[in-house]
């Protein structure tokens, strides 16, 4: 919230690149990704994240997202706030609207959970991990 | 629960191969994966799934998993049941113990959510999708 700069780089702090099938996830690693999983374990929020990711430019404002839901703007804004607070979306205020963009590091961290352990390709998902 | 056969093939019914970044996830697709996300949005269950996946042979019984947790056997069994009911683990009774194995189709469905949309490599995750 305090940093308006969009974070497009992988965050070193995220528990990324730890496939579930690799070696047993530690309690610390689990604690790092569970808040993100909780945030998307909701149909509206999972669809919102998908809409942001698939929107031209990979970013969207509430105004872009509202037509896809039978939900009020405050409700959509609340769900976006939950995704933001879980570290899945960054946001940037431009004039009247707040634009949301998915954090690549979060996507990498979540995706790498389900990467098969075999094969060194796992490490190629992000250079920063 | 009723079928003791381990399901190692991709399930056609799962909402797999639908990257969040591809096109907006439909409400039906979201409804298909949210129960799995809810199940693993818990540190103990996420670690249990990781332990099963990373255990030799990709399968484990409660007896294998118990030493890694400061939890009772009934609690571990409860968490495994939740993972089973969410479609993430299959189980098979052998003598005294029930063995759990991750369902590849579920892993593929979850992993494909976070696959970057660009590039045809997405389709190679599973031939059945």
Task: Please give the structural blueprint.
Two copies of one chain form a homodimer.
Chain A: H1 27-40, H2 43-54, E1 59-61, H3 62-65, H4 73-85, E2 89-94, E3 97-102, H5 104-113
Antiparallel strand pairs in A: 1-3, 2-3
Keywords (chains A, B): DNA-binding, Transcription, Transcription regulation
GO molecular function (chains A, B): DNA binding; DNA-binding transcription factor activity
Protein name (chains A, B): ArsR family transcriptional regulator
If you had to describe this structure to a student in words, what would you say it looks like?
The structure is a homodimer of 129-residue chains. In chain A, helix 2 packs across helix 4. In chain A, 41% of the residues lie in helices and 12% in strands. In chain A, a hairpin with a 2-residue loop joins strand 2 and strand 3. The first copy, chain A, is elongated. Chain A is an alpha+beta fold. Chain A has a three-stranded antiparallel beta sheet. Chain A has a domain at 27-115: Arc Repressor Mutant, subunit A (Orthogonal Bundle). At the A-B interface, helix 1, helix 2 and helix 5 of A face helix 1, helix 2 and helix 5 of B. Chains A, B: This is ArsR family transcriptional regulator. Chains A, B: GO terms for molecular function: DNA binding; DNA-binding transcription factor activity. Chains A, B: Residues 25-122 form the HTH arsR-type domain. Chains A, B: It holds the Pfam family HTH_5. Chains A, B: It comes from Nocardioides perillae.
């Amino acid at each position: 919230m305090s940093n308006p700069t969009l974070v497009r780089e992988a965050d070193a702090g995220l528990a990324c690149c730890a496939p579930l099938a690799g070696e047993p996830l530690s309690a610390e690693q689990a604690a790092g990704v569970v808040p993100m999983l909780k945030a998307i374990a909701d149909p509206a929020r999972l669809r919102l994240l998908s809409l942001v990711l698939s929107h031209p430019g990979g970013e969207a404002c509430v105004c872009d997202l509202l037509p896809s839901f039978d939900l009020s703007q405050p409700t959509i804004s609340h769900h976006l706030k939950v995704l933001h607070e879980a570290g899945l979306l960054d946001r940037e205020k431009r004039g009247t609207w707040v634009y949301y963009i998915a954090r690549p590091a979060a996507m990498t961290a979540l995706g790498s959970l389900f990467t098969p352990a075999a094969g060194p390709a796992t490490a190629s998902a992000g250079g920063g991990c």
